[in-house]
Amino acid sequence: MIGLVLAAGAGRRLRPYTDSLPKALVPVGRAGIEGEDPDGRTVLDVILGNFAEIGLTEAAIVVGYRKEAVYARKAALEARYGLKLTLVDNDKAEEWNNAYSLWCARDLFADGVILSNGDTVHPASVEKTLLAARGAGKQIILALDAVKQLADEEMKVVADPAKGVRKITKLMDPAEASGEYIGVTLIEGAAAAGLADALKTTFERDPQLYYEDGYQEMVDRGLRIDVAPIGDVPWVEIDNHDDLAKGREVVCRY
Description:
This protein is 30% helix and 22% strand.
């Protein structure tokens, strides 16, 4: 099993940081862009550190917007985390949404992957929860926050204990949801072909759709997707400057 990070996005709401950096390289140390954080940690550092902590030795990063910044740091990241890194180019990163971005990494699915969005700051306990949930024929397992109070913007999930995910979308009454998908998924190799085809169908229908719409496509085809509740764990999806401030508080806890 390898790690996989989606880090092709521009993150325009995080300017001026993202004028020259992809979203995943935005600093999350307390000092931020001024560089006073002795660890110099970015969102990508946090994710790769999690992969190393759970024992992975390889990871891939899907890059697009300002990809040269990731290429420039590749050797240093490999040395810091003991991971062999593969960079996967997304040629439509500034035009299409992330259903296509995940599809770009489809050749890696057969190895089994732990996928993390490149803007999700979370502890390694999330990955550990997903690994502990493996087995019993499960092919895709989503990390689910069933504790957080939900609003309109979250990627909400309805899950049935007997049937798995029934619905995943932002466009749902929060009161209907079982919880929020936090942007971390365990994908077993057995799901590779089905997921790749569902993602292709999704972005061909509308290039602006999310990979979570690809998950819904799989569910609609009768394929099972499971969830693993992560408990009361501090995490944040960093979309804007308010989120970044929260992210810096979260990182200090672990």
